[in-house]
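Final report, Chapter 2: Outcomes

The project's central promise was a pipeline that accepts a single protein chain and returns its three-dimensional structure in a standardized token representation, suitable for archiving and comparison. That pipeline is now operational. To close this chapter, we reproduce one record exactly as it appears in the project archive, with the input sequence first and the structure output second.
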Amino acid sequence: MTATGASENVAARGRPGGGPWWWARRRSAVLDVLLAVVSTVECMAEGVPFAHSSGMPVALGVLLGVVVGPVLLVRRRWPVAVVLTSIAVIPAEMGGLLSVVGLYSLAASHVPRRIIGLLAGMTAVGTVVSTFFSMRQDVAGQPDFNPPVWFLALMALAVGLVLTAPPVLWGLYVGARRRLVESLRERADGLERELSLLADRAEERAEWARNEERTRIAREMHDVVAHRVSLMVVHAAALQAVALKDPEKASRNAALVGDMGRQALTELREMLGVLRTAEGAGGSDEPERLAAVASRVSRQAAEGAEGAGEGVVEVPGGAVVGVAVGPLGGAEPEGDGPWLGELGELVEQSRAAGMAVEFSVLDGEGEPVSVDGGGPRYVARVEQTVFRVVQEALTNVHKHAPGAGARVRLAHRAGEVAVQVENGPSVRGAADAGLPSGGNGLVGMRERVVALGGVFVSGPTEAGGFRVSAVVPVGAAG
């Protein structure tokens, strides 16, 4: 807002309408031009009697009207100047339209109320005084009509109020309504910006959730498929070794390899199929679909390979050490997926592949307990994390420590559950079994444990083996 009361934001908001100069729209400019023309004609007509009464040339009176009338062109930009001009020509009894339109424009602008009241009062006083003296002069020329002075003053006051109050009140109403509309528009624009920002943030959160779910599924696929494929490779190597010596044992090994291969392919096909569908659809239910498939994969992994308990491959093995500690949940595991009671089956699968695995379960006092799935239960995330750590540790043994012995320990402590998988050096002296590795095993175990608020540590042992450990405080999984 300028010092003269013009509202620049109104013009700026309406500028796309194509109005010239300070006009917001072309029709506003046309209206003001028409008002200025009418005001000019009026002032020129009123300048003639003013010139006669004041004894000045008529041309000068007309010229005064030509100068005063067009002031209405700037009523939107400088309403104060228009009102001051109308007050200045009140003694000349010209500029009636100029005064009315100027007061309306002033009251509708952003000029402070005290200035509006001051200029409206000056206009009213000037109009009353001018009207009073004009009426007294007219009455003086008529001897038959001699009204009292108070009557003339009352009539002059009425004329002044009629010419001043309505345009001011109407201008105040229009200005208040205009400001209300502008406030509502600004509020609506602000809400629209906030909604757009919230939508962007929601999209970011959805994208983050999709990425997290893809990462989790990739981790599940690595833990499940890699473990099963590693066992397949071990069985295939044993099959090649005993094919000529023991055909019956070779047949059983071939059946195990086929079963494990079919299960691994089924899990891989489901995982990749859902990832392709999610990538193509991009819907908001993608995380739910991915989570459902991950649950199915985890459930199938928990079932293990049927028939693996035959123990037909006589290949010594070793193990990697992994320790994970999670808080006691005191509740049944939620959702699908492996649980601690299935660790025995997981160990038996490695034993069937020829690995010498020692499995023990300890209570809070360090005393051995049954290994058949008994003991306390924990929340699903804790049990699944412990299971996956053991699974990945045994897989790494098959890959990188052939011929080494393994030891798996599960301990139920006060406020936590701990698991440890440890292997010694390879008996054959080989550093690697030749299985492919993506280097994501330890990373995946660390991510799982750290996600529960734990601390993960891994490294070689003094005996030439390997150890991985992690600790999760009580209550982190909740």
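Archive annotation: The longest helix spans residues 149-242.
This record, like all others produced under the grant, will remain available to the consortium after the project formally closes.
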